[in-house]
Amino acid sequence: MATSGTTALLGVAACSSGETNGDDSGAGSGPATGEIEFWAWAAGLDTIVDEFNASQSDITVNYNVIPSGADAYKKIESAVKSGSGPDLAQVEAQQIPTFAVSGGVLMDVATGAEQYKQNYSPATWNSAGFQGQQYGIPNDQGPLVAYVNDDLLTAAGAEFADTWEEYRDLADKVRTDTDAYLGTLVTAGAFMAAVSWQNNAHWFAIEDDSWVVSLNGEATREALNFWIGMANDDLVTVNPGGNAGFWQTLDASEVVSYTTGIWGYRGMKGNLERTSGAWRAMPVPQWEGIEPMNSLWGGSNWAVMEGSKNAAAALKFADWLAAEPTAMNLQYENSGYYPASDAEQVDGYAESDEFFGGQKVASVFAEAADLVGDDWQWGPSMTTVYTLLEDSIGDAIKTGDCTEMLNSVQEEVVGRLRDSGLEVREG
């Protein structure tokens, strides 16, 4: 049964759903055999599923490709609640609390999953769970890094920045000396979350059985106003990212660096031709006055769905997919990927990479991942948060300050969460 504290955190919907808050914790501990349905969108998974099915005879995986993002979650939730959902599905880290709060979507497989826990870091393992419940296996993560056009910096007689204060000075130098821009303010909500988190912001927390919402905190204001200020001073471009125009700015040497999750290399390799070989992977700059730290932009889990009759088989396949070297190397070849498990099992990171001028990116990526802490809490409404930020960042850029935007988003999110039956207070 749910405790009063769990009721306050999960709300009326989840706690009225016997499935999510029932005694599911023993699920996944039975025989790992049978047939499972698997839904995901990551590139190349069909080949990897075929490899798994050919490698053993105990489990048969049927793979179904679904769209990514909000459309995926609507499809998953509708199917699971109607009794026609998969056993296992791809769910991003920020969506886990939302499904936990809504109830009836995720199965708590804490007991069955425990045997696989040692394969993953605390931060990535926690991303597949919520409040003591474990819903599956973490697959990948997106620690922030900076991809830098080293040829352009060398021509400008400059080196990349170690701190964000130095980044601002370097942006001014690059703009003055080369007419290029140092970077891009990406107007995606996930970018805003990542740069805030890296400045030790905490948008959501759980204290005394209540959600604490701090979307307008000082660290967030500092991080976003840093980028907004550079945009207003014409030192960085402004773009949603990931579109043809964005890639063109990088390949035409109009923009010198790209701050993104590690996965960004895949889009670069697929879209940049003229500047291939000029790029280097580098640590993201640090904020002065706080301990060195990093954040995540992106990360997916293989989550077991409520109603699965083969949770143990789903978990065994999920761990194979996330931690078996064969599967990991295939994921690396097929998509923008950095594992939630041991990255040393992926051969490509340790090899000379022609796109990066022969650089071996393993150490940069490992350092980026090592600096990610495990104290960031995703909220129960991240799709709403991202949409509100993305809809209002343009006005904040025009005014040169994000304070009004953040106060408005804070008020709207708190109101919606309270209306949904959650206990909420403002941080």
From TrEMBL:
Keywords per UniProt: Cell membrane, Lipoprotein, Membrane, Palmitate, Signal
Protein's name according to its UniProt entry: ABC transporter substrate-binding protein
PANTHER family, sorted: ARABINOSE-BINDING PROTEIN-RELATED (PTHR43649), POLYGALACTURONAN_RHAMNOGALACTURONAN-BINDING PROTEIN YTCQ (PTHR43649:SF33)
Taxonomic classification: Bacteria, Bacillati, Actinomycetota, Actinomycetes, Micrococcales
Residue ranges crossing the lipid bilayer per the database entry: none
